[in-house]
Amino acid sequence: MPRQRSVRLAAVAIAVAAALVLAVALLRRPSGADHHAAAAPAAAAPPVLHDISALRIAVAAANARLRATADRLASTGDAQAGPEPVNAGAVDRARALAALAAAAGESPQGIACSKIRGDALVREIAATAVVPVPGVACFTYQSHNGPGSFCDVSAGAVLDTRKVRLGLKSGWAGEEGHLTYDRGALSIAVPGSTGGALQLSGAHLTPTYADLYGSAIMDPTALDAAHCDVTYDEPVIAVTRNEWAHLLFSLCEAVNAYAGLEVALGTDPLYRSRVRVLLLDTHPPGPYAGFFEALSPGGPPILYGRDLHGKGRVCFKRLITSINGYHSFMLTAATGDASPCRGSSLLAGVRAAVMELHGLIDARPSSRNGTVHVTLVSRRPYEHEGFRKSSITRAVTNEDQLAQAVHSELPGVAFAAVDFARLNLREQLETVARTDVLVGMHGAGLMQSVFMSADESEHTVVVEIFPTQYGENHRDRNVARLMNRNYLVFESPTSGQLQEASPDPVRFVNVLRSILPLTGHTIV
Predict the structure, then answer these.
(1) Contact by Cβ (8 Å): 435, 452
(2) CA distance linking residue 170 with residue 295, whole number of Å
(3) Burial state string for 409-444 with b = 16 or more CB within 10 A and e = fewer than 16
(4) What share of the chain is helix, strand, coil (3-state, %, to 5)?
(5) Three-class DSSP labels, 313-342
(6) I need a labelling partner for 232 at 20 to 30 A (CA). Which of 138, 444, 469, 474 fits?
(7) What is the pTM of this model?
(8) What distance in Å separates the CA atoms of residue 427 and residue 425, rounded to the nearest whole number?
(9) CB 367, CB 474: distance < 8 Å
(10) What are the phi and psi torsion angles at 50 (to 5°)?
(11) Sheet harboring 437-441: ordered strands across?
């Protein structure tokens, strides 16, 4: 859990408040039809996040009881017992977790924010456990797209790759690259079962995982050595990616997997060193494979769906399937109204894991040397491993003019327009970690703000250039606040089919000048 920042000195707080007032004053125009940049209120001290150690202890005890029940059923061969004893254990665990959450004594707003932040979110997801058959527990997250479930098959499972079809699946773009499964492709080693199809009652599976589990049969002998061509003894989390070359959705998938691992394996403090990630699709590794590598730093290498082709029966001693990225904690936390919540232990944990993997955990801006680093996210066409985006909407068409204005008027500011799609992941992370002010058009590129400095979060600023005709969309603002960053919106009209923008250079310079005190520096 990231360490908490100390309270700012009074003088800095006054300077920050004054800077925000100045920003509004500078950018307000006399005409009611004109648009202006509006600065967010001065940031309050980040909230104290709750420790989840008590949750982990409770889940460990509950898991032990559930395993004991499953073992008893397996040893007695009581196939008629069904899932009821295990379901009773899950209910007991849910009640214990609910009592634990209530004991925290949080206010209604505190509870809502805590769920967004992540620690209570883990408690909430864990408390939804249903165990439709022994050795299989499913958990549900209520997202803005409706409920989505992931399942922990602690009984073990076998994927028969001879019954898995590779290649593109027809349909909407999000389904391309997914696998399709014939009946019997997945076998679950349900103790005491007598065969038959797997029924996951109470689980809300999104289409991809519904296809996988819909093919499943119950077979208590599935993991017998004679039946396995390849065996993975370590826990495996399976993630089916949707938009694999897209920063936002790749991050959503990684955050979901991180949360799922915390629920399923969080009782083991060493789980991240031994879990294996399986990207169960036919996509190439893509530009953001490092997000998934970070789920198990120093652990086994990632498995790709294509690597399983021709392997016969692949046995997993423990298989966890993630929640679909379109049912993401990140999207739910960032969608809707402007949120009052600040700080996310879950998102901070993902950031720390990714930065640690790439040797950048201590990377921070070098602005303490008197230079403030401003990075503009440049939106341009790109191509990754056969995927091509030939046209981009919401591009800034006058980047050179903005750069010239900043260099002329603010000599203490190092301004750079960066096309992140042309950088590898480590280069992207290093660039944004050393950035004081991140500027960009509304879009996925501003999700780079997650990887700005954590140690300097109260001195980092996100400036969103927002199309005036878009109405309200608080996603980028809410994510910035979840990372304890300052945020300012700069409204700008767009034109043409591609909704391109040309921000006024004078206004742009005024915005930067007004927010420089937030970085701890004032440049005249």
Answers:
(1) yes
(2) 31
(3) bbeebbbebbebbeeebeebbbbbbbbbbbbbbbbb
(4) 40, 20, 40
(5) EEEECCEEECCCHHHCHHHHHHCCCCCCCC
(6) 138
(7) 0.76
(8) 5
(9) no
(10) -80, 145
(11) 38-39, 486-492, 461-467, 437-441, 372-377, 413-418
